[in-house]
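Quick question, first post here. What does this chain look like in 3D?
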Amino acid sequence: MPLISVLTAAAPGRESLLQRAFQSVATQDLPTGWALEWVVQYDGETTRSLEHVTHDERVFLAPNGRNFGTAITRNLGLARVRGRYVRVLDDDDELLEGALSQDIDALEGVDDIWWTTSRAIDAYPDGRLHAPADAIPPGRVEVGGLLDSWMSSQGIPPVHPATLCARTQVVRAFGGWMALPVSDDVGLLLAMSSLLPGFFAPNASLRYHKSDFQITASDYSRSQASKTQRMDAIRQRVESINALSRIFVALGDGG
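> Answer (accepted):
Ran it through. C-alpha coordinates below.
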Protein backbone atom coordinates (compact mmCIF):
# COMPACT_ATOMS: atom_id res chain seq x y z
CA MET A 1 0.00 0.00 0.00
CA PRO A 2 1.53 3.37 -1.00
CA LEU A 3 2.24 5.69 1.92
CA ILE A 4 2.44 9.46 2.30
CA SER A 5 4.29 10.88 5.30
CA VAL A 6 3.52 14.11 7.12
CA LEU A 7 6.64 15.42 8.86
CA THR A 8 6.46 17.82 11.81
CA ALA A 9 9.30 19.33 13.83
CA ALA A 10 7.79 19.98 17.27
CA ALA A 11 9.31 22.74 19.37
CA PRO A 12 9.32 22.78 23.19
CA GLY A 13 6.49 24.78 24.72
CA ARG A 14 4.15 24.26 21.77
CA GLU A 15 2.77 20.89 22.76
CA SER A 16 -0.79 22.19 23.03
CA LEU A 17 -0.74 23.15 19.35
CA LEU A 18 0.04 19.62 18.23
CA GLN A 19 -3.45 18.39 19.09
CA ARG A 20 -4.87 20.87 16.59
CA ALA A 21 -2.31 19.82 13.99
CA PHE A 22 -3.07 16.15 14.62
CA GLN A 23 -6.78 16.63 14.03
CA SER A 24 -6.02 18.19 10.67
CA VAL A 25 -3.87 15.19 9.73
CA ALA A 26 -6.18 12.50 11.09
CA THR A 27 -9.21 13.77 9.15
CA GLN A 28 -7.52 13.76 5.73
CA ASP A 29 -9.27 11.76 3.01
CA LEU A 30 -6.77 9.94 0.82
CA PRO A 31 -7.09 8.42 -2.63
CA THR A 32 -8.21 4.79 -2.62
CA GLY A 33 -5.45 2.44 -1.51
CA TRP A 34 -3.27 5.09 0.14
CA ALA A 35 -2.24 5.30 3.79
CA LEU A 36 -0.56 8.02 5.85
CA GLU A 37 1.85 8.33 8.74
CA TRP A 38 2.60 11.37 10.89
CA VAL A 39 6.26 11.56 11.85
CA VAL A 40 6.74 13.97 14.76
CA GLN A 41 10.31 14.81 15.71
CA TYR A 42 10.57 16.63 19.05
CA ASP A 43 13.31 19.22 19.50
CA GLY A 44 14.14 18.18 23.06
CA GLU A 45 15.26 15.40 25.35
CA THR A 46 12.07 13.32 25.62
CA THR A 47 8.62 13.06 24.06
CA ARG A 48 6.97 12.57 27.45
CA SER A 49 5.19 15.91 27.15
CA LEU A 50 3.69 14.81 23.80
CA GLU A 51 2.17 11.52 24.90
CA HIS A 52 -1.19 13.16 25.59
CA VAL A 53 -1.55 14.25 21.97
CA THR A 54 -2.66 10.93 20.54
CA HIS A 55 -2.33 7.17 20.71
CA ASP A 56 -3.11 6.81 17.01
CA GLU A 57 -1.03 4.01 15.51
CA ARG A 58 -0.25 6.21 12.50
CA VAL A 59 1.68 8.68 14.67
CA PHE A 60 5.38 8.13 15.34
CA LEU A 61 7.05 10.29 18.00
CA ALA A 62 10.79 10.55 18.66
CA PRO A 63 13.01 13.07 20.49
CA ASN A 64 16.27 14.62 19.34
CA GLY A 65 17.82 14.07 22.76
CA ARG A 66 18.57 17.80 23.00
CA ASN A 67 17.61 21.08 21.32
CA PHE A 68 18.95 21.56 17.79
CA GLY A 69 16.50 23.92 16.09
CA THR A 70 13.95 23.39 13.35
CA ALA A 71 16.17 22.46 10.39
CA ILE A 72 18.12 19.72 12.16
CA THR A 73 14.94 18.45 13.81
CA ARG A 74 13.28 18.10 10.41
CA ASN A 75 16.27 16.24 9.03
CA LEU A 76 16.36 13.82 11.96
CA GLY A 77 12.66 13.19 11.40
CA LEU A 78 13.28 12.71 7.68
CA ALA A 79 15.47 9.72 8.53
CA ARG A 80 12.37 8.01 9.98
CA VAL A 81 10.04 8.79 7.08
CA ARG A 82 8.81 5.69 5.24
CA GLY A 83 6.45 7.24 2.70
CA ARG A 84 6.86 7.64 -1.04
CA TYR A 85 6.12 11.33 -0.54
CA VAL A 86 6.78 13.62 2.41
CA ARG A 87 4.59 16.61 3.25
CA VAL A 88 5.88 19.17 5.73
CA LEU A 89 3.59 20.51 8.47
CA ASP A 90 4.71 23.05 11.07
CA ASP A 91 3.62 22.26 14.62
CA ASP A 92 1.37 25.34 14.84
CA ASP A 93 -0.34 24.97 11.44
CA GLU A 94 -3.21 22.89 10.08
CA LEU A 95 -3.75 20.95 6.89
CA LEU A 96 -6.95 21.91 5.11
CA GLU A 97 -9.46 19.37 3.83
CA GLY A 98 -8.16 17.56 0.77
CA ALA A 99 -4.56 18.73 1.20
CA LEU A 100 -2.88 15.34 0.96
CA SER A 101 -5.13 14.10 -1.84
CA GLN A 102 -4.21 17.16 -3.88
CA ASP A 103 -0.51 16.51 -3.25
CA ILE A 104 -0.79 12.85 -4.24
CA ASP A 105 -2.81 13.64 -7.37
CA ALA A 106 -0.21 16.17 -8.51
CA LEU A 107 2.78 13.91 -7.90
CA GLU A 108 1.16 10.76 -9.26
CA GLY A 109 -0.49 12.41 -12.23
CA VAL A 110 2.63 13.44 -14.14
CA ASP A 111 5.84 11.39 -14.28
CA ASP A 112 8.28 14.28 -14.23
CA ILE A 113 6.73 16.30 -11.40
CA TRP A 114 9.00 15.93 -8.38
CA TRP A 115 7.56 18.38 -5.86
CA THR A 116 4.40 20.36 -5.32
CA THR A 117 3.26 23.40 -3.35
CA SER A 118 -0.08 25.12 -2.97
CA ARG A 119 -1.85 28.11 -1.50
CA ALA A 120 -1.82 28.86 2.23
CA ILE A 121 -4.47 30.80 4.15
CA ASP A 122 -3.05 33.17 6.77
CA ALA A 123 -4.84 32.84 10.13
CA TYR A 124 -4.42 35.63 12.70
CA PRO A 125 -4.87 35.40 16.49
CA ASP A 126 -8.01 37.58 16.31
CA GLY A 127 -9.69 35.08 13.99
CA ARG A 128 -9.12 36.93 10.73
CA LEU A 129 -8.28 34.89 7.65
CA HIS A 130 -6.42 36.22 4.63
CA ALA A 131 -5.67 34.54 1.32
CA PRO A 132 -2.61 36.21 -0.26
CA ALA A 133 -2.68 36.76 -4.00
CA ASP A 134 -0.85 34.16 -6.09
CA ALA A 135 2.57 35.21 -7.31
CA ILE A 136 2.53 32.58 -10.06
CA PRO A 137 -0.37 30.85 -11.84
CA PRO A 138 -1.40 27.33 -10.82
CA GLY A 139 0.14 24.56 -12.86
CA ARG A 140 3.53 23.25 -13.81
CA VAL A 141 6.60 25.09 -12.49
CA GLU A 142 9.54 24.71 -14.84
CA VAL A 143 13.13 24.20 -13.72
CA GLY A 144 14.51 27.43 -12.30
CA GLY A 145 11.07 29.02 -12.29
CA LEU A 146 11.20 30.21 -8.68
CA LEU A 147 14.67 31.70 -8.30
CA ASP A 148 14.27 34.97 -10.22
CA SER A 149 11.04 35.82 -8.42
CA TRP A 150 12.64 35.05 -5.06
CA MET A 151 15.64 37.26 -5.83
CA SER A 152 13.57 40.19 -7.10
CA SER A 153 11.23 40.08 -4.10
CA GLN A 154 14.05 40.31 -1.56
CA GLY A 155 13.83 36.76 -0.29
CA ILE A 156 10.08 36.14 -0.42
CA PRO A 157 9.44 32.94 -2.41
CA PRO A 158 6.60 33.02 -4.96
CA VAL A 159 5.08 29.86 -3.42
CA HIS A 160 4.71 28.99 0.27
CA PRO A 161 7.45 26.57 1.41
CA ALA A 162 5.29 25.45 4.36
CA THR A 163 3.04 23.68 1.81
CA LEU A 164 5.84 21.63 0.27
CA CYS A 165 5.25 17.99 -0.59
CA ALA A 166 7.91 16.10 -2.52
CA ARG A 167 9.25 12.71 -3.42
CA THR A 168 11.06 11.51 -0.31
CA GLN A 169 14.12 10.31 -2.22
CA VAL A 170 14.50 13.74 -3.78
CA VAL A 171 14.36 15.53 -0.42
CA ARG A 172 17.06 13.20 0.89
CA ALA A 173 19.19 13.59 -2.23
CA PHE A 174 19.24 17.37 -1.76
CA GLY A 175 20.35 17.01 1.85
CA GLY A 176 17.00 17.88 3.39
CA TRP A 177 16.46 21.27 4.96
CA MET A 178 19.31 23.79 4.95
CA ALA A 179 21.21 24.35 8.17
CA LEU A 180 19.87 27.88 8.60
CA PRO A 181 18.18 29.46 11.64
CA VAL A 182 15.35 30.69 9.40
CA SER A 183 14.38 29.95 5.77
CA ASP A 184 15.67 26.38 5.86
CA ASP A 185 12.54 25.38 3.92
CA VAL A 186 13.13 28.09 1.31
CA GLY A 187 16.64 26.73 0.79
CA LEU A 188 15.34 23.23 0.13
CA LEU A 189 12.56 24.41 -2.17
CA LEU A 190 14.83 26.56 -4.33
CA ALA A 191 17.47 23.83 -4.50
CA MET A 192 14.98 21.27 -5.77
CA SER A 193 13.36 23.69 -8.19
CA SER A 194 16.75 24.54 -9.70
CA LEU A 195 17.02 21.03 -11.16
CA LEU A 196 13.56 19.48 -11.10
CA PRO A 197 10.15 20.67 -12.33
CA GLY A 198 7.31 20.96 -9.84
CA PHE A 199 3.68 21.92 -9.58
CA PHE A 200 1.70 24.74 -7.96
CA ALA A 201 -1.67 23.26 -7.04
CA PRO A 202 -4.80 25.42 -7.37
CA ASN A 203 -6.47 24.80 -4.00
CA ALA A 204 -5.34 26.05 -0.60
CA SER A 205 -3.93 23.24 1.54
CA LEU A 206 -2.77 24.96 4.72
CA ARG A 207 -4.05 27.20 7.47
CA TYR A 208 -0.88 29.13 8.32
CA HIS A 209 -1.16 30.53 11.83
CA LYS A 210 0.45 33.94 12.30
CA SER A 211 1.69 34.96 15.76
CA ASP A 212 4.35 37.02 17.49
CA PHE A 213 5.96 33.78 18.72
CA GLN A 214 7.00 32.62 15.26
CA ILE A 215 10.70 32.79 14.58
CA THR A 216 9.86 34.44 11.26
CA ALA A 217 8.27 37.27 13.26
CA SER A 218 11.38 37.86 15.39
CA ASP A 219 13.57 40.93 15.11
CA TYR A 220 16.43 38.67 14.06
CA SER A 221 14.49 37.18 11.18
CA ARG A 222 13.31 40.56 9.96
CA SER A 223 16.67 42.33 10.18
CA GLN A 224 18.29 43.20 6.86
CA ALA A 225 21.63 41.75 7.95
CA SER A 226 20.05 38.38 8.75
CA LYS A 227 18.05 38.37 5.53
CA THR A 228 21.17 39.15 3.48
CA GLN A 229 23.09 36.31 5.13
CA ARG A 230 20.33 33.80 4.44
CA MET A 231 19.82 34.93 0.86
CA ASP A 232 23.55 34.70 0.16
CA ALA A 233 23.71 31.16 1.56
CA ILE A 234 20.68 30.00 -0.42
CA ARG A 235 21.78 31.71 -3.65
CA GLN A 236 25.27 30.21 -3.40
CA ARG A 237 23.79 26.75 -2.89
CA VAL A 238 21.56 27.05 -5.94
CA GLU A 239 24.37 28.44 -8.09
CA SER A 240 26.66 25.59 -7.02
CA ILE A 241 24.00 22.99 -7.83
CA ASN A 242 23.52 24.52 -11.27
CA ALA A 243 27.27 24.58 -11.90
CA LEU A 244 27.64 20.91 -10.95
CA SER A 245 24.68 20.04 -13.13
CA ARG A 246 26.35 21.61 -16.15
CA ILE A 247 29.54 19.65 -15.42
CA PHE A 248 27.63 16.36 -15.19
CA VAL A 249 25.84 17.09 -18.45
CA ALA A 250 29.16 17.84 -20.16
CA LEU A 251 30.68 14.61 -18.82
CA GLY A 252 27.68 12.66 -20.03
CA ASP A 253 28.10 14.15 -23.49
CA GLY A 254 31.72 13.08 -23.55
CA GLY A 255 32.99 16.60 -22.99
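The chain has a mean pLDDT of 92.
Helices lie at 15-26, 70-78, 99-109, 147-152, 168-173, 184-193, 219-222, 224-252.
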